[in-house]
Predict the 3D structure of the following.
Amino acid sequence: QVQLVESGGGLVQPGGSLRLSCAASPSMSRVSSMGWYRQAPGKQRDMVAVITTSGTVNYADSVKGRFAISRDTGRNTVYLQMNSLKPDDTAVYYCAFTRFYDNNVYWGQGTQVTVSS
């Protein structure tokens, strides 16, 4: 069974940085894209950043210039470096892997990021 394990969330002051990681279990087959999404209380889950295996990257406008997504394809791991964090970035962050052959999407369990002084 495919599992995605996230780490790196926590409490940080405004202006601070965090790095999230998400690793897929060895049973994860070929992936077409990896991404990060977030959901704040009472709001829908929104895309933060997505990277394809060809290296194409998309960011939400709200995080451009502050966040950076990267991947280690060999380890089936995706990262999200978050800098200049703002209180509005507070949310549960989820990673998602899209399987290549059937576009099935697998989700991580979510990790809380809280930006507060």
Observations:
- The chain is about 0% helix and 55% strand.
- The mean pLDDT is 95.
- The longest strand covers residues 31-39.
- Residues 69 and 80 are 5 Å apart (CA to CA).
